[in-house]
# Entry
Amino acid sequence: MTKVSVFHYIKLFMRSALFVATLLWYIYTRSTNGEVSLQQLGNGETWIVLVIVWVVFCFEMIMRMFPSPLESNGCQKQFGRNYIPSGQTEAKIDDNHATVLVLLVWIVLNGIIGGLYMGGLIDQGILLLISLVFSICDIICILFFCPFQSWFLKNKCCSTCRIYNWDYAMMFTPLFFIPGIYTWSLLMLSVLLLVRWEITVWKCPERFAENTNEYLACKNCNEKLCAHKKQLARLWTQIKIEKKKYETRILNAISEHRKRSRPEN
# Structure
């Protein structure tokens, strides 16, 4: 357990606790007032929930704007202080097409969510809960399993992730459908992080490629977050092997039972 991994476990716990508290608030408000609206700030509980969510994530995003020893190399590679020239000058970033695919998938997913909201099937409280679920999934992607890494980008680990700093913008996309100072300020700040990231990728691509930046090499990794994913991968492989062995034993037992039960001619 490194400092970085401990920090992310703390974030996972805090975000999970925030989601549970917000879920309880939603159930209570829904049962007493019917549809939940985040624009009715006259409701004291609604205002408190929004302020807490706003403060927590604004603080996280502001901290992301500066170098930090507790953050992953994946988001820290954007800073010039973390650029360690390897001697090569042509940055190899091969996942730009996959990045566009991720963007399209995310737009479609949130388009569906927005359609459900516009159709009256979900309310603003559910949109907020979806954003908080996304925030938990963000840490799960870092610590345990990342579908973007495995299915789209094929990057070796978080350190070389092309879209690492898209996380907050992806979290708060559902808030686009809720006009308001708290919701849209969270979204705008997250978009600012994304735009800054993309401008840096365009201007300084050498910081984002392992072949040009030694900071991204495994020997310079101080987080070891990939260890959790590798352990889970080994465990999953072992489970599949044991499952196959168990199925084979069952089939063999059934076959043997049928042979013994078959009447002799």
The mean pLDDT is 91. Residues 226-265 form one domain.
